[in-house]
């Protein structure tokens, strides 16, 4: 099909879809309306189970099984990316050269690193209390480590980031979630049912299994993102074609100023 | 107008589709797919919004004192974001391989099969 014909098909399809979406919008309950039957029930259930962050209660208690699927997608996507971006036989690795970083960048990145790491861990640990949780905190922790790439260079990042260990932590997080679910079966109820005592409302130990599942997800997301970024950075910085000596020789690989992430 | 947020979601979706269909660079196409997905966040959050509502988090809010927005759709949006981010990473990995094997990331030039 020619480009012109394709655009016509797209225009017709897009217009039809636009009409359908418009008609559907008119049938939806009004924006900002007061009737949220599912929301009201979710809030009630979360409060009954002593979890002050209702979203964490929905994700790790009321529909914890869905979150297992979501976590597995994350795990499989990380696995697939590692497989797709591995070094093939016609490629070789070059050692990245140290690069000069402007002193203010280095200073601020090195100050921001521990602060960001701490915030990430805080967000994971308080997932059942305040906004945040394993998914969000995990991403913050993983990006905190990569501030070292901005502040120093790729070799410094590699020193604090043994990818093999992070890959294992990724699998361990996924396994911990699966096994915590089995605790429900051992206790004689359903898989992933909340079996621990609910604790005191609004304390770190409240919510039963919610904080544990949350921590498992935090570990998995943090290490999964580190592994993902490591595969992409390897491609950008280290891996070159075996017969390629001209355009990507070690002395002009991607400089750290141009982040491929 | 009380349907405007829903229409915005539909518009973002259609813009993303247009970009996907007319894209001449696979990286751009992956970005367009992310735009399509962003429309679902807007739709979900618009469905769950409540006038005068606050976040459904009771660490500093006494239950029953203020209306809260729908936590179910917020949890769904969180799922959506996580899945979207990882699928984007996977697709970009595919683009890296396509670029290496075929020397191009223009979908129109990728018509022939190669062993």
Describe the fold and architecture.
The complex is a heterodimer of chains A (261) and B (115). Chain A is mostly helical and 261 residues long. Chain A has helices at residues 3-27, 37-48, 54-62, 64-84, 103-125, 134-151, 154-159, 163-186, 210-238, and strands at 91-93, 239-241. Chain B has 115 residues and is mostly helical. Chain B has a single domain, classed as Orthogonal Bundle (Helix Hairpins), CATH 1.10.287. Chain B contains 3 helices and no strands. Chain B has helices spanning 4-22, 26-48, 71-102. The mean pLDDT of chain B is 89. Chains A and B meet through α1, α2, α3, α4 and α9 of A and α1, α2 and α3 of B.
In short:
Chain A has helices at 3-27, 37-48, 54-62, 64-84, 103-125, 134-151, 154-159, 163-186, 210-238; strands at 91-93, 239-241. With 261 residues, chain A is mainly alpha-helical. Chain A has one domain (43-239).
Distance between the termini of chain B: 55 Å
Overall pLDDT score of chain B = 89
Helix content of chain A: 55-70%
Overall mean confidence score, pLDDT of chain A: 86
**Radius of gyration based on Cα positions of chain A:** 24 Å
Q: What structural class do the secondary elements of chain B suggest?
A: mainly alpha
Tell me the major beta sheet of chain B: none
Number of strands of chain B: 0
Q: Which residues of chain B sit in consecutive blocks of at least 5 with pLDDT less than 50?
A: none
The end-to-end distance of chain A, rounded to whole angstroms, is: 35 Å
**How large is the count of helical segments of chain A?**
9
The beta-strand count of chain A equals 2
Organism (chain B): Streptomyces rimosus subsp. rimosus
Keywords (chain B): Cell membrane, Membrane, Transmembrane, Transmembrane helix
Main location (chain B): membrane
InterPro entries (chain B): CPA3_antiporter_subunitC, NUOK/Mnh_C1-like
């Amino acid at each position: 099909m020619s480009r012109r014909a394709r655009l016509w098909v797209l225009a017709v399809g897009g217009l039809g879809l636009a009409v359908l979406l418009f008609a559907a919008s008119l049938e939806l309950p009004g924006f900002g309306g007061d009737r949220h039957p599912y929301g009201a029930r979710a809030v009630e259930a979360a409060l009954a189970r002593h979890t002050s962050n209702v979203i964490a209660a929905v994700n790790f208690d009321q529909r914890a099984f869905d979150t297992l699927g979501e976590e597995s997608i994350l795990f499989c996507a990380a696995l697939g990316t590692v497989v797709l971006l591995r070094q093939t036989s016609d490629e070789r690795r070059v050692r990245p050269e140290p690069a000069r970083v402007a002193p203010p960048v280095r200073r601020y990145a090195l100050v921001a690193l521990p602060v960001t790491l701490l915030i990430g861990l805080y967000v994971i640990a308080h997932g059942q209390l305040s906004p945040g949780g394993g998914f969000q905190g995990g991403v913050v922790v993983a990006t905190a480590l990569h501030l070292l790439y901005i502040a120093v260079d790729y070799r410094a990042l590699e020193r604090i980031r043994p990818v093999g260990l992070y890959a294992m932590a990724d699998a361990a997080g996924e396994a911990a979630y699966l096994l915590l679910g089995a605790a429900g079966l051992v206790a004689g109820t359903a898989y992933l049912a909340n079996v621990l005592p609910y604790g005191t409302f609004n304390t770190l130990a409240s919510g039963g299994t919610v904080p544990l599942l949350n921590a498992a997800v935090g570990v998995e997301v943090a290490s999964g993102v580190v592994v993902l970024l490591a595969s992409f950075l390897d491609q950008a910085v280290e891996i070159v074609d075996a017969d390629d000596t001209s355009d990507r020789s070690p002395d002009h690989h991607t400089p750290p100023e141009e982040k491929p992430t | 107008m009380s349907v405007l947020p829903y229409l915005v979601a539909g518009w973002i979706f259609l813009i993303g589709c247009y970009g996907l269909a007319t894209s001449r660079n696979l990286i751009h196409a992956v970005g367009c797919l992310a735009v399509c997905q962003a429309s679902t966040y807007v739709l979900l959050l618009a469905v769950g919004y409540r006038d005068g509502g606050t976040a459904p988090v009771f660490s500093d809010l006494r239950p029953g004192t203020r209306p809260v927005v729908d936590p179910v759709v917020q949890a769904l949006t969180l799922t959506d974001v996580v899945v979207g981010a990882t699928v984007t990473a996977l697709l970009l990995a595919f683009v890296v391989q396509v670029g290496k094997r075929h020397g191009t990331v223009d979908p129109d030039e990728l018509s022939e099969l190669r062993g």
